[in-house]
Design brief:
The protein contains 17 helices and 13 strands. The chain has a 6-stranded parallel β-sheet with strand order 3-2-1-4-5-6. With 415 residues, it is an alpha/beta fold. Helix 1 crosses helix 7, helix 10 runs antiparallel to helix 11 and helix 11 packs across helix 12. It folds into 2 domains: 240 residues, Rossmann fold; 107 residues, no CATH class.
């Protein structure tokens, strides 16, 4: 049984919170997508099935709205508001990204809805928080990223080049992950206390604490944190870690050896490739392999021996990468217990045998297209909480009659 089986979510359709609704739906919740008469605008976003625009052809919308059902309601009418209240009465969660005062002006905000459903969990995902007027200013995923910190950490050693924005709606994704985690926490709390709650999620705040160590480094040091090519941003430049392999492809050499057994495996690999003979620093790898006690990374730059051993590990990885194909280097590091990554294009990642073995590509049946379409699969794997895409994204209003007709019966049972 799915972890959220029996949990009903009312999602006010908005591209900002769509991913949070998808995460809930793919974990088994019954997610009812409330759309305006003309539909959620992202229904028209490219790319399209077979590159052909048209109704129910947006791959963007299809991805973000799996495992949901669609109901059309005009919340500016009394009939729409009444139907919405009926839905809330038999639901557990409201997920929305409306303008700050929109629901309050309609008499449909948490303080109003909790009278109908005392156990309601209401999650509001806005650019800067519900109490901030800035949240009603026009924003995009790009402007949220730029104003909140992550791009400052993303880019190249050459600072004459501008920062790099992470693609794929990462601002919205980050906010949605925090909304998802907060909702799950609220559900656990409700199971114990019997009480729901209002959750105010700021996308900007979520982004600012999702800069790895950059925000904290700035707070501690009080100096500018500089972006670096293929590695963590830092207040002081660190050794390069991204390298071009023999086949012209790039890899991030990732986490170099930090424990004696890792230095030992790297030295063995270097020797087997015949590169140790032309690598005088191999003596430091041997010292690392035979190191007694903990290898204190905090002493890098201060203790000459520890610094030499650590740098020998990084340089050995660079040397092997220069003489190998990117994939052979990746496999060699895997065998040595070292974390690295090939710089893949998205379609290449989908085709990689490791992604395939993990079951990441998922085929979803589309009865409306009489075919299957390949989707990204689970973003995580939980051993006792199965994940699955239970249905394709809904057509506009596809379930309006079915759901609204059943409300009276459901609410009688709820009472």
């Amino acid at each position: 049984m799915s972890a959220l089986n029996g949990v009903r979510v009312i999602e006010l359709a908005n591209e900002t919170n769509a991913f949070a609704g998808k995460l809930l739906g793919d974990m088994g919740a019954d997610v009812i997508l409330i759309e305006p008469v003309n539909g959620e605008p992202s229904r028209a976003y490219p790319p399209f099935v077979d590159d052909q625009p048209g109704d129910n052809h947006s791959l963007y919308f299809m991805h973000y709205n799996t495992s949901k059902r669609s109901v059309v309601l005009d919340l500016d009418t009394q009939a729409g508001q009444d139907a919405f209240k009926q839905l809330i009465y038999s639901s557990d969660i409201l997920l929305e990204s409306e303008p700050v005062n929109r629901l309050s002006d309609l008499g449909l905000d948490y303080k109003d809805l909790v009278k109908l459903q005392p156990k309601l969990i209401h999650a509001a995902l806005t650019p800067y928080g519900r109490d901030q007027a800035l949240s009603d200013l026009p924003v995009t995923d790009l402007t949220l990223m730029a104003s909140s910190g992550p791009p400052w950490s993303c880019g190249y050693d050459d600072h004459s080049l501008p920062p790099v924005r992470g693609w794929g709606q990462q601002a919205y994704h980050t906010g949605c992950h925090y909304a998802f985690m907060s909702i799950l926490t609220a559900l656990l709390y409700r199971n114990v206390s019997g009480r729901g709650q209002f959750i105010d999620i700021s996308i900007s705040a979520a982004l600012n604490v999702t800069t790895e160590a950059s925000s904290y480094s700035w707070l501690v040091s009080g100096t500018t944190v500089q972006r670096q090519t293929g590695r963590h941003a830092a207040t002081k430049p660190t050794a390069e870690s991204q390298v071009k392999c023999a086949d012209g492809r790039y890899v991030n050499t990732g986490v170099p050896p930090r424990f004696p057994e890792e230095f030992g495996r790297l030295l063995t690999w270097l020797t087997e490739t015949g590169l140790a003979e032309d690598f005088p620093e191999a003596v430091f790898l041997d010292m690392g392999a035979n190191w007694q006690g903990p290898f204190d990374l905090s002493l890098i730059g201060e203790d000459e021996t520890i610094t030499a051993i650590f740098m020998a590990g990084r340089d050995a990885l660079m040397k092997i990468a220069h003489s190998s194909s990117a994939y052979d280097f990746f496999i060699g590091c895997q065998n040595s217990g070292l974390s690295v990554g090939i710089v893949y294009a998205p379609e290449e990642a989908f085709e990689d045998e490791h992604f395939q073995a993990r079951g990441f590509p998922v085929e979803v049946q589309h009865d409306d297209l009489d075919r299957t379409i390949t989707y990204p699969g689970a973003p995580y794997q939980l051993p006792v909480s199965p994940w699955s895409i239970s249905r394709r994204a809904p057509h506009l209003g596809e379930h309006t009659t079915e759901i609204l007709a059943g409300l009276a019966t459901e609410n009688d049972e709820h009472r």
